[in-house]
Amino acid sequence: MAPWIFTDRISSNQTIRVFNHGKSQRDFTYVGDIVQGIIHALFVNTGQPELVNLGNGSPVVLADFVRIVEEHVGRKAQIDSVGMQKGDVPKTYADITKARYLLGYNPTTTVEDGIASFVEWFRDYDASKYKMIS
């Protein structure tokens, strides 16, 4: 959700709200890497169902994420920097150890490359062609 919201708002010069003053860390994963993990899972038979986490496994500081989006959008963000949201945690990321072992899962897309691809797609996206399902 953050890539979409931040890209949309920065592109249209709207303010983005950044919690924990940009110090929070999150695990941003490129959709193509998740797809590869799912495809690998289709061909693994351990004899029993297994739960695995698919993610990037490397947390990114939110302020750095915003900077990367700014670079690819070509515009500085208008930031509303606020404290941590009630009930939130300062750092989250997927433990992909089991996915690496069982599936040979290895996410390869950097946050920089993922955002570059997303922003390119976003610029070509025409919302009027799609109906939102609620």
UniProtKB/TrEMBL annotation:
Coiled coil: none annotated. Pfam families: GDP_Man_Dehyd. Keywords: NAD. The keyword NAD applies. The keyword NAD applies. Residues 15-116 form the NAD(P)-binding domain. Belongs to the NAD(P)-dependent epimerase/dehydratase family. This is NAD(P)-binding domain-containing protein. It comes from Pseudo-nitzschia multistriata.
